[in-house]
Amino acid sequence: MRYYLYWIIYFIISKEVFVLYHFNKFHALDSLTQMKIFVVGLRLDASFAAYLSILPFTLLAFSINPKIQKPILSFVKYFTYLCVIICTLIVTIDLELYRAWGFRIDTTPLMYLSNPEEMMASAGASPTSLLIFIWVVISIISILAFHFLFQKIRFEKLPWLNFPVVLFLAAALIIPIRGGLQLAPINQSAVYFSNKLFANHAAINPLWNFADSWFNKTTEKGNPYQYLPIKEAEKEVLITIQNNSPTTEYVIDTTITKPNVLIITWESLTAKVFDKTGGLQGVLPELGKIADEGILFRNCFASGDRSDKGLIAILSAFPAQPTASVMTMPKKTAHLPILSQDFKKHGYRTAWYYGGEPEFANIKSYMLAGEFDQLITKENFDSKDMNSKWGAHDHVVFNRLLHDLNVQKEPFFVNYFTLSSHEPFEVPMETVFKGDDMKDKFINAHHYTDKSLGKFIAEAKKQDWWKNTIVIIVADHGHPLPKDDKKIDNFHIPMVWTGGALKAKGKVIDAICSQNDLVATLLAQLRKSNPAYQWSKNIFQQNYQPSAYYVFNDGFGWVAPRGNFAFDNQGKNLIETSGKVDSNLVKQGKAYLQLSFQAFLNL
To answer: Any transmembrane segments, and where (predicted)?
Structure first.
Protein backbone atom coordinates (compact mmCIF):
# COMPACT_ATOMS: atom_id res chain seq x y z
CA MET A 1 0.00 0.00 0.00
CA ARG A 2 2.97 2.25 0.59
CA TYR A 3 3.96 1.63 -3.03
CA TYR A 4 0.51 2.61 -4.29
CA LEU A 5 0.48 5.79 -2.18
CA TYR A 6 3.96 6.63 -3.47
CA TRP A 7 2.57 7.02 -6.98
CA ILE A 8 -0.44 9.03 -5.84
CA ILE A 9 1.85 11.48 -4.04
CA TYR A 10 4.04 11.61 -7.15
CA PHE A 11 1.04 12.67 -9.24
CA ILE A 12 -0.08 15.28 -6.69
CA ILE A 13 3.39 16.84 -6.78
CA SER A 14 3.36 16.69 -10.60
CA LYS A 15 0.05 18.54 -10.57
CA GLU A 16 1.57 21.16 -8.29
CA VAL A 17 4.41 21.63 -10.79
CA PHE A 18 1.85 22.02 -13.59
CA VAL A 19 -0.14 24.76 -11.85
CA LEU A 20 3.07 26.58 -10.88
CA TYR A 21 4.28 26.44 -14.51
CA HIS A 22 0.95 27.97 -15.56
CA PHE A 23 0.66 30.17 -12.49
CA ASN A 24 -1.08 33.08 -14.23
CA LYS A 25 -3.99 30.85 -15.22
CA PHE A 26 -4.01 29.15 -11.82
CA HIS A 27 -3.86 32.44 -9.94
CA ALA A 28 -6.91 33.71 -11.85
CA LEU A 29 -9.03 30.97 -10.23
CA ASP A 30 -10.72 31.37 -6.84
CA SER A 31 -9.23 29.46 -3.90
CA LEU A 32 -12.00 26.85 -3.79
CA THR A 33 -11.50 25.99 -7.47
CA GLN A 34 -7.76 25.80 -6.91
CA MET A 35 -8.25 23.29 -4.12
CA LYS A 36 -10.73 21.24 -6.14
CA ILE A 37 -8.15 20.75 -8.89
CA PHE A 38 -6.22 18.50 -6.52
CA VAL A 39 -9.17 16.90 -4.75
CA VAL A 40 -11.25 16.09 -7.84
CA GLY A 41 -8.15 15.15 -9.83
CA LEU A 42 -7.35 12.40 -7.33
CA ARG A 43 -9.68 10.03 -9.19
CA LEU A 44 -7.49 9.91 -12.28
CA ASP A 45 -4.33 10.00 -10.16
CA ALA A 46 -5.55 6.95 -8.25
CA SER A 47 -6.49 5.24 -11.50
CA PHE A 48 -3.08 5.59 -13.13
CA ALA A 49 -1.28 4.81 -9.86
CA ALA A 50 -3.18 1.52 -9.91
CA TYR A 51 -2.07 0.81 -13.46
CA LEU A 52 1.56 1.32 -12.43
CA SER A 53 1.09 -0.89 -9.35
CA ILE A 54 -0.36 -3.97 -11.02
CA LEU A 55 2.94 -5.59 -11.98
CA PRO A 56 4.77 -4.88 -8.68
CA PHE A 57 1.75 -6.08 -6.65
CA THR A 58 1.55 -9.30 -8.64
CA LEU A 59 5.28 -9.99 -8.35
CA LEU A 60 5.30 -9.30 -4.61
CA ALA A 61 2.60 -11.93 -4.17
CA PHE A 62 5.13 -14.52 -5.38
CA SER A 63 7.91 -13.29 -3.10
CA ILE A 64 6.95 -15.86 -0.48
CA ASN A 65 9.64 -17.98 -2.10
CA PRO A 66 12.92 -16.87 -0.41
CA LYS A 67 14.93 -17.77 -3.51
CA ILE A 68 13.25 -15.17 -5.66
CA GLN A 69 12.62 -12.44 -3.10
CA LYS A 70 15.78 -10.51 -3.87
CA PRO A 71 15.39 -10.64 -7.69
CA ILE A 72 11.77 -9.55 -7.36
CA LEU A 73 12.66 -6.61 -5.14
CA SER A 74 15.45 -5.60 -7.53
CA PHE A 75 13.12 -5.83 -10.49
CA VAL A 76 10.44 -3.73 -8.76
CA LYS A 77 13.04 -1.14 -7.84
CA TYR A 78 14.45 -0.72 -11.36
CA PHE A 79 11.00 -0.99 -12.90
CA THR A 80 9.93 1.91 -10.70
CA TYR A 81 13.01 3.95 -11.58
CA LEU A 82 12.28 3.48 -15.28
CA CYS A 83 8.63 4.43 -14.80
CA VAL A 84 9.66 7.54 -12.88
CA ILE A 85 11.99 8.68 -15.67
CA ILE A 86 9.45 8.04 -18.44
CA CYS A 87 6.50 9.47 -16.51
CA THR A 88 8.45 12.59 -15.58
CA LEU A 89 9.49 13.07 -19.21
CA ILE A 90 5.84 13.00 -20.30
CA VAL A 91 4.83 15.28 -17.42
CA THR A 92 7.55 17.74 -18.41
CA ILE A 93 6.65 17.73 -22.10
CA ASP A 94 3.05 18.29 -21.10
CA LEU A 95 4.00 21.52 -19.30
CA GLU A 96 5.08 23.25 -22.48
CA LEU A 97 2.69 21.42 -24.78
CA TYR A 98 -0.24 22.83 -22.82
CA ARG A 99 1.16 26.33 -23.18
CA ALA A 100 1.43 25.93 -26.95
CA TRP A 101 -1.67 23.88 -27.77
CA GLY A 102 -4.02 24.39 -24.84
CA PHE A 103 -4.72 20.72 -24.07
CA ARG A 104 -3.14 18.00 -21.94
CA ILE A 105 -0.75 15.67 -23.66
CA ASP A 106 -2.17 12.86 -25.78
CA THR A 107 -0.81 10.96 -28.79
CA THR A 108 -0.92 14.04 -31.05
CA PRO A 109 2.85 14.72 -30.72
CA LEU A 110 3.56 11.17 -31.94
CA MET A 111 2.33 12.24 -35.38
CA TYR A 112 5.53 14.25 -35.77
CA LEU A 113 8.10 11.72 -34.55
CA SER A 114 9.03 10.88 -38.14
CA ASN A 115 10.22 14.46 -38.58
CA PRO A 116 12.56 15.16 -35.65
CA GLU A 117 14.08 18.27 -37.25
CA GLU A 118 10.68 19.89 -37.62
CA MET A 119 9.81 18.87 -34.06
CA MET A 120 12.94 20.60 -32.80
CA ALA A 121 12.15 23.68 -34.87
CA SER A 122 8.66 23.80 -33.45
CA ALA A 123 10.07 23.45 -29.95
CA GLY A 124 12.64 26.15 -30.62
CA ALA A 125 10.68 28.74 -28.71
CA SER A 126 10.31 26.50 -25.66
CA PRO A 127 12.53 26.96 -22.60
CA THR A 128 14.36 23.70 -23.28
CA SER A 129 16.97 24.14 -20.54
CA LEU A 130 14.29 24.78 -17.93
CA LEU A 131 12.28 21.76 -19.04
CA ILE A 132 15.32 19.47 -18.94
CA PHE A 133 16.12 20.83 -15.47
CA ILE A 134 12.57 20.08 -14.29
CA TRP A 135 12.71 16.56 -15.76
CA VAL A 136 16.06 15.76 -14.14
CA VAL A 137 15.25 17.27 -10.72
CA ILE A 138 11.83 15.61 -10.36
CA SER A 139 13.25 12.28 -11.53
CA ILE A 140 16.14 12.39 -9.04
CA ILE A 141 13.93 13.47 -6.12
CA SER A 142 11.37 10.76 -6.93
CA ILE A 143 14.02 8.05 -7.18
CA LEU A 144 15.64 9.14 -3.91
CA ALA A 145 12.22 9.21 -2.23
CA PHE A 146 11.54 5.67 -3.41
CA HIS A 147 14.89 4.50 -2.13
CA PHE A 148 14.25 6.10 1.27
CA LEU A 149 10.74 4.64 1.60
CA PHE A 150 11.58 1.10 0.56
CA GLN A 151 15.20 0.47 1.51
CA LYS A 152 14.21 -1.30 4.76
CA ILE A 153 11.62 -3.64 3.25
CA ARG A 154 12.47 -7.27 4.11
CA PHE A 155 10.67 -10.54 3.46
CA GLU A 156 12.60 -13.03 5.62
CA LYS A 157 9.50 -14.56 7.29
CA LEU A 158 6.60 -14.15 4.93
CA PRO A 159 3.71 -16.48 5.74
CA TRP A 160 2.02 -18.34 2.91
CA LEU A 161 -1.11 -16.32 3.66
CA ASN A 162 0.57 -13.35 2.05
CA PHE A 163 0.26 -14.94 -1.38
CA PRO A 164 -3.56 -14.87 -1.63
CA VAL A 165 -3.77 -11.57 0.29
CA VAL A 166 -1.34 -9.66 -1.95
CA LEU A 167 -2.74 -11.32 -5.08
CA PHE A 168 -6.19 -10.18 -3.95
CA LEU A 169 -4.88 -6.64 -3.53
CA ALA A 170 -3.45 -6.78 -7.05
CA ALA A 171 -6.84 -7.85 -8.40
CA ALA A 172 -8.55 -5.17 -6.31
CA LEU A 173 -6.62 -2.51 -8.24
CA ILE A 174 -9.32 -2.83 -10.88
CA ILE A 175 -11.51 -0.70 -8.64
CA PRO A 176 -9.36 2.47 -8.73
CA ILE A 177 -8.46 1.73 -12.36
CA ARG A 178 -12.16 1.88 -13.28
CA GLY A 179 -12.69 4.78 -10.90
CA GLY A 180 -15.09 2.88 -8.65
CA LEU A 181 -17.77 0.24 -8.85
CA GLN A 182 -20.05 2.08 -11.26
CA LEU A 183 -21.07 0.52 -14.58
CA ALA A 184 -19.06 2.82 -16.87
CA PRO A 185 -15.28 3.11 -16.37
CA ILE A 186 -13.75 6.45 -15.45
CA ASN A 187 -12.90 8.98 -18.15
CA GLN A 188 -11.71 12.58 -18.35
CA SER A 189 -15.16 14.00 -17.66
CA ALA A 190 -15.01 12.48 -14.16
CA VAL A 191 -12.61 15.25 -13.12
CA TYR A 192 -14.41 18.07 -14.92
CA PHE A 193 -16.02 20.23 -12.27
CA SER A 194 -15.74 23.88 -13.34
CA ASN A 195 -16.83 26.24 -16.10
CA LYS A 196 -13.19 27.36 -16.19
CA LEU A 197 -11.52 25.13 -18.76
CA PHE A 198 -8.04 25.48 -17.26
CA ALA A 199 -9.31 24.15 -13.92
CA ASN A 200 -10.68 21.04 -15.62
CA HIS A 201 -7.53 20.54 -17.65
CA ALA A 202 -5.32 20.96 -14.58
CA ALA A 203 -7.26 18.21 -12.78
CA ILE A 204 -6.48 15.69 -15.53
CA ASN A 205 -3.63 13.26 -14.95
CA PRO A 206 -1.41 13.68 -18.05
CA LEU A 207 -0.15 10.08 -17.95
CA TRP A 208 -3.70 8.76 -17.79
CA ASN A 209 -4.71 11.06 -20.64
CA PHE A 210 -1.77 9.96 -22.80
CA ALA A 211 -2.40 6.25 -22.15
CA ASP A 212 -6.13 6.63 -22.82
CA SER A 213 -5.41 8.37 -26.12
CA TRP A 214 -2.98 5.59 -27.06
CA PHE A 215 -5.19 2.60 -26.26
CA ASN A 216 -8.56 4.10 -27.17
CA LYS A 217 -7.92 5.54 -30.58
CA THR A 218 -10.99 7.43 -31.64
CA THR A 219 -10.53 6.71 -35.33
CA GLU A 220 -10.81 2.98 -34.75
CA LYS A 221 -14.18 3.24 -33.04
CA GLY A 222 -17.62 4.51 -33.83
CA ASN A 223 -18.71 8.11 -33.71
CA PRO A 224 -18.52 9.31 -30.08
CA TYR A 225 -20.53 12.43 -30.89
CA GLN A 226 -24.03 10.97 -31.26
CA TYR A 227 -25.92 13.97 -29.96
CA LEU A 228 -29.00 13.81 -32.21
CA PRO A 229 -31.03 11.29 -34.21
CA ILE A 230 -29.42 11.08 -37.64
CA LYS A 231 -32.37 12.56 -39.55
CA GLU A 232 -32.60 15.49 -37.19
CA ALA A 233 -28.85 16.12 -37.44
CA GLU A 234 -29.00 16.02 -41.25
CA LYS A 235 -31.87 18.52 -41.25
CA GLU A 236 -29.94 20.94 -39.02
CA VAL A 237 -26.75 20.72 -41.06
CA LEU A 238 -28.55 21.06 -44.39
CA ILE A 239 -29.86 24.44 -43.31
CA THR A 240 -26.37 25.74 -42.62
CA ILE A 241 -24.49 24.44 -45.71
CA GLN A 242 -27.03 24.76 -48.52
CA ASN A 243 -25.72 25.93 -51.91
CA ASN A 244 -28.91 26.04 -53.94
CA SER A 245 -29.24 29.71 -54.79
CA PRO A 246 -29.32 30.46 -58.53
CA THR A 247 -28.16 34.03 -57.85
CA THR A 248 -24.52 34.84 -57.10
CA GLU A 249 -22.67 38.12 -56.96
CA TYR A 250 -19.60 37.98 -59.20
CA VAL A 251 -16.56 39.83 -57.92
CA ILE A 252 -14.19 38.47 -60.59
CA ASP A 253 -14.04 39.81 -64.12
CA THR A 254 -16.34 37.41 -65.98
CA THR A 255 -14.70 38.19 -69.34
CA ILE A 256 -11.66 36.19 -68.20
CA THR A 257 -12.61 32.60 -68.93
CA LYS A 258 -9.80 30.94 -67.02
CA PRO A 259 -8.23 33.29 -64.47
CA ASN A 260 -5.07 32.23 -62.71
CA VAL A 261 -5.51 31.41 -59.03
CA LEU A 262 -2.85 31.91 -56.36
CA ILE A 263 -3.73 30.98 -52.77
CA ILE A 264 -1.25 32.20 -50.16
CA THR A 265 -1.72 30.29 -46.91
CA TRP A 266 -0.19 32.39 -44.14
CA GLU A 267 1.14 30.49 -41.14
CA SER A 268 -0.65 31.41 -37.87
CA LEU A 269 -2.19 34.61 -39.26
CA THR A 270 -4.59 35.70 -36.55
CA ALA A 271 -7.08 38.55 -36.68
CA LYS A 272 -5.49 39.76 -33.45
CA VAL A 273 -2.48 41.21 -35.32
CA PHE A 274 -4.50 42.89 -38.11
CA ASP A 275 -6.07 46.26 -37.36
CA LYS A 276 -8.81 45.84 -39.97
CA THR A 277 -10.14 42.80 -38.11
CA GLY A 278 -9.97 44.45 -34.71
CA GLY A 279 -6.34 43.58 -33.98
CA LEU A 280 -3.14 45.47 -33.24
CA GLN A 281 -2.25 48.60 -35.16
CA GLY A 282 0.75 48.77 -37.47
CA VAL A 283 1.71 45.08 -37.54
CA LEU A 284 0.43 44.27 -41.06
CA PRO A 285 0.49 47.53 -43.05
CA GLU A 286 1.01 45.77 -46.39
CA LEU A 287 -1.93 43.41 -45.89
CA GLY A 288 -3.98 46.50 -44.99
CA LYS A 289 -3.10 48.13 -48.33
CA ILE A 290 -3.91 44.92 -50.19
CA ALA A 291 -7.27 44.66 -48.41
CA ASP A 292 -8.11 48.27 -49.32
CA GLU A 293 -7.58 47.42 -52.99
CA GLY A 294 -9.51 44.15 -52.92
CA ILE A 295 -11.99 42.28 -50.74
CA LEU A 296 -11.63 41.79 -47.00
CA PHE A 297 -13.59 39.02 -45.30
CA ARG A 298 -13.65 40.49 -41.83
CA ASN A 299 -15.37 37.66 -39.95
CA CYS A 300 -13.65 34.54 -41.21
CA PHE A 301 -12.79 31.65 -38.89
CA ALA A 302 -10.26 28.83 -39.06
CA SER A 303 -11.55 25.27 -39.02
CA GLY A 304 -8.84 23.89 -36.75
CA ASP A 305 -5.89 24.82 -34.61
CA ARG A 306 -3.02 23.30 -36.61
CA SER A 307 -1.59 23.60 -40.10
CA ASP A 308 -2.49 20.06 -41.14
CA LYS A 309 -6.14 20.83 -40.37
CA GLY A 310 -6.06 24.24 -42.03
CA LEU A 311 -4.62 23.03 -45.33
CA ILE A 312 -7.33 20.39 -45.57
CA ALA A 313 -10.01 23.02 -44.91
CA ILE A 314 -8.61 25.42 -47.51
CA LEU A 315 -7.94 22.96 -50.34
CA SER A 316 -10.53 20.25 -49.65
CA ALA A 317 -13.20 22.18 -47.71
CA PHE A 318 -13.27 19.39 -45.15
CA PRO A 319 -13.95 20.31 -41.52
CA ALA A 320 -11.30 19.67 -38.87
CA GLN A 321 -11.74 16.88 -36.32
CA PRO A 322 -11.55 17.45 -32.55
CA THR A 323 -9.58 14.29 -31.71
CA ALA A 324 -7.74 13.41 -34.91
CA SER A 325 -6.26 14.85 -38.09
CA VAL A 326 -7.24 13.43 -41.45
CA MET A 327 -4.00 14.82 -42.93
CA THR A 328 -2.02 12.19 -41.01
CA MET A 329 -4.02 9.35 -42.59
CA PRO A 330 -3.11 8.95 -46.27
CA LYS A 331 -5.76 6.26 -46.78
CA LYS A 332 -8.40 8.82 -45.88
CA THR A 333 -6.93 11.89 -47.62
CA ALA A 334 -6.83 9.87 -50.84
CA HIS A 335 -10.64 10.02 -50.85
CA LEU A 336 -10.87 13.78 -50.34
CA PRO A 337 -11.57 16.15 -53.22
CA ILE A 338 -8.86 18.78 -53.63
CA LEU A 339 -8.84 22.00 -55.63
CA SER A 340 -5.65 21.14 -57.54
CA GLN A 341 -7.40 18.16 -59.11
CA ASP A 342 -10.36 20.27 -60.21
CA PHE A 343 -8.19 22.94 -61.78
CA LYS A 344 -6.00 20.35 -63.47
CA LYS A 345 -9.08 18.85 -65.13
CA HIS A 346 -9.82 22.28 -66.59
CA GLY A 347 -6.40 22.64 -68.16
CA TYR A 348 -4.57 24.50 -65.40
CA ARG A 349 -0.92 24.01 -64.51
CA THR A 350 -0.71 23.33 -60.76
CA ALA A 351 2.03 23.81 -58.17
CA TRP A 352 2.44 23.80 -54.39
CA TYR A 353 5.15 25.82 -52.64
CA TYR A 354 6.53 25.40 -49.14
CA GLY A 355 10.00 26.26 -47.88
CA GLY A 356 9.99 23.48 -45.29
CA GLU A 357 9.83 19.71 -45.00
CA PRO A 358 6.69 18.38 -46.77
CA GLU A 359 6.75 15.03 -44.95
CA PHE A 360 5.78 16.82 -41.76
CA ALA A 361 2.33 15.57 -40.61
CA ASN A 362 2.01 13.64 -43.91
CA ILE A 363 1.46 16.85 -45.88
CA LYS A 364 3.40 15.46 -48.84
CA SER A 365 1.14 12.44 -49.26
CA TYR A 366 -1.88 14.74 -49.33
CA MET A 367 -0.35 17.05 -51.93
CA LEU A 368 0.69 14.10 -54.08
CA ALA A 369 -2.88 12.81 -53.90
CA GLY A 370 -3.87 16.25 -55.15
CA GLU A 371 -1.86 15.57 -58.34
CA PHE A 372 0.04 18.86 -58.27
CA ASP A 373 2.30 19.12 -61.28
CA GLN A 374 5.07 20.48 -59.07
CA LEU A 375 5.91 20.40 -55.39
CA ILE A 376 8.48 23.08 -54.62
CA THR A 377 9.76 22.34 -51.13
CA LYS A 378 12.85 22.45 -48.93
CA GLU A 379 14.89 20.26 -51.24
CA ASN A 380 14.43 22.71 -54.13
CA PHE A 381 16.36 25.48 -52.37
CA ASP A 382 20.10 25.91 -51.94
CA SER A 383 21.63 25.20 -48.55
CA LYS A 384 22.41 28.91 -48.19
CA ASP A 385 18.67 29.55 -48.36
CA MET A 386 17.96 27.24 -45.43
CA ASN A 387 18.00 30.27 -43.15
CA SER A 388 15.39 29.23 -40.59
CA LYS A 389 14.89 26.22 -38.37
CA TRP A 390 11.95 25.23 -40.56
CA GLY A 391 13.62 25.79 -43.91
CA ALA A 392 13.68 28.72 -46.33
CA HIS A 393 12.29 31.98 -45.00
CA ASP A 394 9.27 33.57 -46.64
CA HIS A 395 11.07 36.24 -48.67
CA VAL A 396 13.23 33.52 -50.29
CA VAL A 397 10.20 31.47 -51.33
CA PHE A 398 8.29 34.56 -52.46
CA ASN A 399 11.23 35.41 -54.75
CA ARG A 400 11.25 31.88 -56.16
CA LEU A 401 7.48 31.99 -56.61
CA LEU A 402 7.66 35.29 -58.49
CA HIS A 403 10.38 33.96 -60.76
CA ASP A 404 8.44 30.78 -61.52
CA LEU A 405 5.13 32.53 -62.19
CA ASN A 406 6.83 34.81 -64.70
CA VAL A 407 7.67 31.78 -66.82
CA GLN A 408 4.66 29.65 -65.86
CA LYS A 409 2.24 28.68 -68.59
CA GLU A 410 -1.22 30.13 -68.01
CA PRO A 411 -3.72 29.37 -66.63
CA PHE A 412 -2.17 28.25 -63.36
CA PHE A 413 -3.35 27.22 -59.92
CA VAL A 414 -0.75 27.66 -57.18
CA ASN A 415 -0.80 27.33 -53.41
CA TYR A 416 2.04 28.79 -51.33
CA PHE A 417 2.23 27.89 -47.64
CA THR A 418 4.44 30.30 -45.66
CA LEU A 419 6.46 29.26 -42.59
CA SER A 420 8.38 32.17 -41.01
CA SER A 421 5.60 33.10 -38.59
CA HIS A 422 5.76 29.64 -37.01
CA GLU A 423 7.56 29.13 -33.72
CA PRO A 424 10.31 29.97 -32.84
CA PHE A 425 9.41 33.22 -34.67
CA GLU A 426 13.01 33.97 -35.69
CA VAL A 427 13.09 36.08 -38.85
CA PRO A 428 15.87 37.74 -40.93
CA MET A 429 14.75 41.27 -40.17
CA GLU A 430 15.74 43.99 -37.76
CA THR A 431 13.40 43.93 -34.77
CA VAL A 432 10.60 46.42 -35.20
CA PHE A 433 8.50 45.67 -32.14
CA LYS A 434 10.96 45.72 -29.26
CA GLY A 435 10.89 42.99 -26.65
CA ASP A 436 12.18 39.48 -26.06
CA ASP A 437 9.04 37.69 -24.98
CA MET A 438 7.03 35.34 -27.21
CA LYS A 439 4.39 37.99 -27.92
CA ASP A 440 6.92 40.41 -29.41
CA LYS A 441 8.65 37.70 -31.42
CA PHE A 442 5.30 36.54 -32.76
CA ILE A 443 4.34 40.07 -33.82
CA ASN A 444 7.74 40.69 -35.43
CA ALA A 445 7.51 37.44 -37.38
CA HIS A 446 4.15 38.46 -38.82
CA HIS A 447 5.48 41.93 -39.62
CA TYR A 448 8.32 40.27 -41.55
CA THR A 449 5.96 38.04 -43.56
CA ASP A 450 3.76 41.08 -44.22
CA LYS A 451 6.78 42.96 -45.55
CA SER A 452 7.74 40.01 -47.77
CA LEU A 453 4.17 39.74 -49.06
CA GLY A 454 4.05 43.46 -49.83
CA LYS A 455 7.20 43.26 -51.95
CA PHE A 456 5.87 40.23 -53.78
CA ILE A 457 2.52 41.86 -54.60
CA ALA A 458 4.22 45.06 -55.73
CA GLU A 459 6.40 43.13 -58.17
CA ALA A 460 3.56 40.85 -59.25
CA LYS A 461 1.49 43.86 -60.33
CA LYS A 462 4.19 44.65 -62.91
CA GLN A 463 3.90 41.25 -64.57
CA ASP A 464 1.72 40.34 -67.55
CA TRP A 465 0.00 37.48 -65.68
CA TRP A 466 -1.28 39.77 -62.92
CA LYS A 467 -4.22 41.12 -64.91
CA ASN A 468 -5.58 37.58 -65.28
CA THR A 469 -4.99 36.48 -61.70
CA ILE A 470 -6.99 36.22 -58.48
CA VAL A 471 -4.88 36.10 -55.31
CA ILE A 472 -6.38 34.78 -52.07
CA ILE A 473 -4.57 35.34 -48.77
CA VAL A 474 -5.83 33.26 -45.86
CA ALA A 475 -4.44 31.85 -42.61
CA ASP A 476 -3.91 28.15 -42.01
CA HIS A 477 -5.18 28.74 -38.45
CA GLY A 478 -5.34 31.40 -35.77
CA HIS A 479 -3.20 31.54 -32.65
CA PRO A 480 -3.38 32.15 -28.88
CA LEU A 481 -0.70 34.83 -29.25
CA PRO A 482 -0.26 37.74 -28.89
CA LYS A 483 -2.86 37.36 -26.15
CA ASP A 484 -4.62 34.14 -25.22
CA ASP A 485 -8.21 35.29 -25.52
CA LYS A 486 -11.49 33.44 -25.80
CA LYS A 487 -11.62 30.45 -28.13
CA ILE A 488 -13.50 32.42 -30.74
CA ASP A 489 -10.74 35.05 -30.85
CA ASN A 490 -8.05 32.41 -31.22
CA PHE A 491 -9.81 31.06 -34.34
CA HIS A 492 -10.69 34.43 -35.88
CA ILE A 493 -8.57 34.96 -39.02
CA PRO A 494 -8.40 37.44 -41.92
CA MET A 495 -9.08 36.44 -45.52
CA VAL A 496 -8.25 38.86 -48.34
CA TRP A 497 -8.84 38.60 -52.09
CA THR A 498 -6.89 40.71 -54.57
CA GLY A 499 -5.45 40.49 -58.09
CA GLY A 500 -5.94 42.01 -61.52
CA ALA A 501 -8.85 39.66 -62.29
CA LEU A 502 -10.79 41.07 -59.35
CA LYS A 503 -13.34 43.66 -60.39
CA ALA A 504 -14.55 44.48 -56.86
CA LYS A 505 -12.29 46.98 -55.12
CA GLY A 506 -12.29 48.09 -51.50
CA LYS A 507 -15.09 45.73 -50.56
CA VAL A 508 -15.63 44.48 -47.01
CA ILE A 509 -17.61 41.33 -46.28
CA ASP A 510 -18.88 41.26 -42.71
CA ALA A 511 -20.79 37.98 -43.02
CA ILE A 512 -19.52 35.16 -40.80
CA CYS A 513 -17.68 32.58 -42.90
CA SER A 514 -15.14 29.78 -42.65
CA GLN A 515 -12.00 28.59 -44.35
CA ASN A 516 -14.17 25.76 -45.65
CA ASP A 517 -16.24 28.25 -47.63
CA LEU A 518 -13.30 29.37 -49.74
CA VAL A 519 -13.64 26.41 -52.13
CA ALA A 520 -17.33 26.76 -53.02
CA THR A 521 -17.02 30.57 -53.21
CA LEU A 522 -14.05 30.41 -55.58
CA LEU A 523 -15.56 27.71 -57.81
CA ALA A 524 -18.81 29.66 -58.05
CA GLN A 525 -16.89 32.73 -59.22
CA LEU A 526 -15.36 30.62 -61.97
CA ARG A 527 -18.77 29.14 -62.85
CA LYS A 528 -17.60 25.71 -61.81
CA SER A 529 -18.95 23.41 -59.13
CA ASN A 530 -18.19 20.11 -57.50
CA PRO A 531 -20.76 18.49 -55.19
CA ALA A 532 -17.94 16.57 -53.48
CA TYR A 533 -17.22 19.74 -51.48
CA GLN A 534 -20.36 19.24 -49.43
CA TRP A 535 -19.07 21.16 -46.40
CA SER A 536 -18.37 24.37 -48.31
CA LYS A 537 -20.87 27.12 -49.12
CA ASN A 538 -20.72 30.05 -51.52
CA ILE A 539 -20.38 33.26 -49.52
CA PHE A 540 -21.67 35.38 -52.42
CA GLN A 541 -24.88 33.43 -53.04
CA GLN A 542 -28.15 35.20 -52.37
CA ASN A 543 -29.37 32.92 -49.57
CA TYR A 544 -25.99 32.42 -47.90
CA GLN A 545 -26.39 31.20 -44.32
CA PRO A 546 -23.59 32.84 -42.29
CA SER A 547 -21.98 30.46 -39.79
CA ALA A 548 -18.62 28.98 -38.91
CA TYR A 549 -17.50 25.83 -37.12
CA TYR A 550 -14.14 25.30 -35.47
CA VAL A 551 -12.59 22.58 -33.31
CA PHE A 552 -10.06 22.39 -30.51
CA ASN A 553 -8.96 19.33 -28.58
CA ASP A 554 -12.17 17.33 -28.04
CA GLY A 555 -14.29 20.42 -28.25
CA PHE A 556 -15.87 22.65 -30.88
CA GLY A 557 -17.13 26.14 -31.45
CA TRP A 558 -20.07 27.47 -33.40
CA VAL A 559 -20.34 31.04 -34.66
CA ALA A 560 -23.61 32.51 -35.93
CA PRO A 561 -25.01 36.05 -36.28
CA ARG A 562 -27.17 35.79 -33.18
CA GLY A 563 -24.51 34.29 -30.92
CA ASN A 564 -21.56 31.98 -30.56
CA PHE A 565 -20.34 29.35 -28.14
CA ALA A 566 -17.57 26.87 -27.41
CA PHE A 567 -18.50 23.40 -26.20
CA ASP A 568 -16.29 20.90 -24.39
CA ASN A 569 -17.10 17.32 -25.37
CA GLN A 570 -15.39 15.80 -22.35
CA GLY A 571 -17.18 17.92 -19.79
CA LYS A 572 -20.36 18.04 -21.92
CA ASN A 573 -20.78 21.72 -21.17
CA LEU A 574 -20.57 25.17 -22.70
CA ILE A 575 -17.31 26.84 -21.78
CA GLU A 576 -17.86 30.12 -23.63
CA THR A 577 -20.94 31.97 -24.80
CA SER A 578 -21.66 35.33 -26.36
CA GLY A 579 -24.88 36.82 -27.67
CA LYS A 580 -28.06 34.78 -27.72
CA VAL A 581 -27.05 31.17 -27.25
CA ASP A 582 -30.12 28.98 -26.94
CA SER A 583 -30.74 25.25 -27.25
CA ASN A 584 -31.45 25.53 -30.99
CA LEU A 585 -28.08 27.16 -31.65
CA VAL A 586 -26.28 24.51 -29.60
CA LYS A 587 -28.18 21.82 -31.50
CA GLN A 588 -26.93 23.25 -34.79
CA GLY A 589 -23.33 23.02 -33.66
CA LYS A 590 -23.71 19.52 -32.26
CA ALA A 591 -25.33 18.33 -35.47
CA TYR A 592 -22.43 19.72 -37.50
CA LEU A 593 -19.90 18.01 -35.23
CA GLN A 594 -21.76 14.71 -35.35
CA LEU A 595 -22.10 14.53 -39.13
CA SER A 596 -18.69 15.95 -40.00
CA PHE A 597 -16.97 13.44 -37.72
CA GLN A 598 -19.03 10.65 -39.23
CA ALA A 599 -17.92 11.82 -42.66
CA PHE A 600 -14.33 11.62 -41.43
CA LEU A 601 -14.87 8.06 -40.20
CA ASN A 602 -16.46 7.11 -43.52
CA LEU A 603 -13.53 8.26 -45.65
So the answer is: 7-24, 44-63, 75-93, 130-149, 161-181
